[in-house]
Amino acid sequence: MTQHASPTTSAKDLALRPSPWRQPLKTVALFALLGPVIGYVAEFLPLSFLDGKPEEIWLTLLAMVAFLPVGLMFAFFFGFLPALATGLAVAAADHWLGPGTLGFRVANCFLAGGLMTWLVLAVAGNVEPSQGWMNLTLYGTGALAAAICGWLTRPGERRA
Fold first, then answer.
1. Dihedral angle of Cα 20, 81, 111, 97, to the nearest 10 degrees
2. What residues does each domain of the chain span?
3. pTM for this structure?
4. What is the DSSP letter of 130?
């Protein structure tokens, strides 16, 4: 829908009118940019517990920071498309269903993130039953990242 100026509408009034595309584009952009970063952190932290030494979590955090440049490259390589697809799905759901309550939005984002991660992996041919736990951690990482992004991008609230 384009905004046409009536004879009584000034350019200042048109500039102050919010664009209907602002919130959906913001949602998609934040999911695509923050999703892989949050997924990197969410995937790296459980590694300290999987090696059987949770008391040495500081070493894992140090390794996460040390491998940040390479880790983020891999995070965006593997996580950008699922994050983008989840952002598009959430923006479409916000448009058609409304954002709903915060808990409803976060739960829907969690489910959409896991589903979109599975879908992108399935299209890429990387879903094998022999890699069950690895795939489950990837789906969980996508779901957790999407839930956090959904909480960060909730529409209709002013945050300073």
1. 20
2. 21-152
3. 0.74
4. G
CA 94 – CA 112 distance, rounded (Å)? 13
3-state DSSP assignment of residue 154: coil
Nearest residue to 109 via CA among 75, 145, 138: 145
Provide the CB-side half-sphere exposure for 107 (13 A, CA).
5
pLDDT digits over 53-76, tens only? 666 777 777 888 888 889 889 889
Look up residue 52 and give its two tokens. 């059987």
CA distance 109 to 70: 27
CB-neighbour burial class of residue 1 (10 A; exposed 0-12, middle 13-18, buried 19+): exposed
